[in-house]
Specification:
Blueprint (H helix, E strand, L loop, with lengths): L1 H7 L1 H10 L2 H12 L5 H25 L1 H5 L2 H17 L2 H5 L7 H10 L4 H25 L1 H44 L1
Length: 187
């Protein structure tokens, strides 16, 4: 990832944050500290990448809101989710990037709840700028420590990639087996 940031600069920050986020923004700060890019430009590219990703999730949530409401997991979690959402209100959109694992569900929730698009865009843009600034600056200021962390993440990425590949093969194999059994049973 670091090599991509060095070679492709701001475009890699934008695309990387669109896909992943936290690690890419930390690396963008490290790369800025090493002089490969400008920190404010990296922060803006990261904020815009996050904003574009969030808008895509919001659009999916709006487009598929009936389907989301009918999902068993949503119906089970809805009372708790709504209680939290009612307590924080739409400000939750601005803060969800800072709580790992809550960004996508929060954005889809507010899309399903029909938060007006201009309000979503304003809150999300502010949240993305705050988040990108914080993570970019942490990466910039702790570039020596971040390099050690990146080394650990790189080692874990290989294992995680292998685990994902095995999981995909297992799921596809199980689906194929189930389809074969259905066809066999229907004959």
């Amino acid at each position: 990832m670091e090599a991509l940031l060095e070679q492709w600069g701001l475009a890699a920050v934008f695309l990387g944050v669109f896909v992943e986020g936290d690690v890419v923004m930390l690396l963008a700060g490290v790369v800025a500290h090493l002089g490969f890019t400008d920190l404010p430009a990296a922060v803006m590219a990261g904020a815009l990448g996050g904003f574009a990703s969030d808008f895509a999730w919001f659009a999916v949530g709006r487009w598929q809101s009936d389907r989301v409401r009918n999902m068993r997991i949503y119906r089970r979690a809805e009372p708790v989710i709504m209680k939290l959402a009612d307590r924080m209100g739409p400000w939750q959109v601005m803060l969800c990037r800072f709580v790992y694992g809550t960004r996508v569900p929060t954005i889809i929730l507010w899309a399903v709840r029909r938060l007006p698009l201009p309000r979503f865009l304003a809150l999300d843009l502010a949240g993305c700028v705050l988040w990108a600034s914080a993570f970019g600056c942490v990466g910039y200021l702790l570039s020596g420590s971040a390099a050690l962390i990146v080394g650990e993440v790189k080692r874990a990425e290989h294992w995680l990639l292998g685990a994902v590949a095995v999981a995909i093969v297992v799921v596809l194999g199980l689906k194929a087996l189930a389809g074969w059994q259905r066809r066999r049973a229907s004959r």
